[in-house]
From TrEMBL:
The keyword Oxidoreductase applies. GO terms for molecular function: oxidoreductase activity. Pfam families: VanA_C. Keywords: Oxidoreductase. InterPro entries: Cholesterol_7-desaturase (IPR050584), VanA_C_cat (IPR044043). Residues 94-269 form the Vanillate O-demethylase oxygenase-like C-terminal catalytic domain. This is Vanillate O-demethylase oxygenase-like C-terminal catalytic domain-containing protein.
Length: 281
């Protein structure tokens, strides 16, 4: 089993708000680690043998790495904008490849069938033409000019609207969704998926949001997003093969799969293959 280049990436392993001196045990890429609060109040992450690992506190989460990660995590300016609600959704364990979890988040076509009468509904099933690119300067996957009719685009939405989207993949197991903000037209709500690889076919998914919504309670915001992801979990846990195929001949893409195709090509380019299936079977 090779962790490939992904061993040098940052991964979420807990919520900053839940840190304490006792801490918790968890697993990252098959390695047992311990997450706790140090004497100075900052996060501390160690391997089972006691060796310290690099640590960052970003976007409400504790991040660490088993290798030699970049000095900092990717930027997300919305996290610092005044007036936004920063929502720590919690964690959902999913029996799937960490790469599958990200790819599912990028999929628009499943909205009417998995999130019926919330993020989509029949007969509004067509995925309109949109644009996808791998931005070389940022080294990120982006999908723009995405639009889809949604009966309830957000907890604060009243009635159906055509929702505009942008998708961004800044790291192999992280995805950022920018979407129409019902409460503040002209702004974007931001929903992130940060994935902690437990093994190549098991992961913890940490959703996080930066929203303009002064009306909805924090509990309702969290429950709404948890409901959406739990609906996805049954789909993710039954995908075959369990690992994400990077061979273009394994699955036949449609126009709705353009972002997935770019994501897989980007993964393969960088040898981000932990949780991937490299050869068609």
């Amino acid at each position: 089993m090779s962790a490939s280049a992904m061993i040098d990436q940052w991964y979420p392993v807990g919520l900053v708000s839940q840190l304490d001196e006792v801490g918790k045990d968890t697993v990252l890429m098959g390695t047992a680690i311990h997450v706790s609060k140090a004497v100075d109040g900052l996060a501390c992450v160690t391997r089972s043998e006691g060796r310290s690992l690099p640590v960052l506190e970003r976007f409400g989460h504790v991040w660490t790495s088993l290798g030699t990660p970049p000095e900092d995590l990717f930027a997300l300016s919305e996290a610092d904008q005044p007036g936004r609600r920063l929502v720590d959704v919690g964690v959902v364990r999913v029996r799937c490849s960490p790469l599958r979890a990200v790819e599912n988040f990028l999929d628009i076509a499943h909205f009417p069938f998995v999130h019926t009468d919330i993020l989509g509904a029949e007969p509004h099933t067509e995925v309109a033409k949109y644009e996808v690119e791998i931005r070389e300067k940022e080294d990120e996957v982006w999908a723009t000019k995405v639009s889809f009719y949604q009966p309830q685009a957000a907890k604060s939405a009243e009635g159906g609207i055509t929702t505009e989207y942008m998708y961004r993949v800044p790291a192999p197991t992280c995805s950022v969704l920018y979407k129409t903000c019902p409460a503040r037209p002209g702004e974007w709500d931001v929903i992130c998926l940060f994935v902690q690889p437990i093994s190549e076919d098991l992961c913890d998914v940490w959703p996080w949001m930066a929203l303009y919504d002064d009306e909805t309670s924090m509990t309702d915001l969290i429950h709404f997003q948890q409901m959406i992801f739990v609906q996805d979990r049954s789909i993710l846990e039954n995908q075959i093969p369990a690992r994400l195929p990077l061979d273009p001949g394994k699955e036949i893409p449609t126009r709705a799969d353009m972002t997935s195709v770019a994501y897989r090509r980007w993964l393969k380019r960088h040898d981000y293959t932990y949780g991937a299936q490299l050869v068609a079977q």
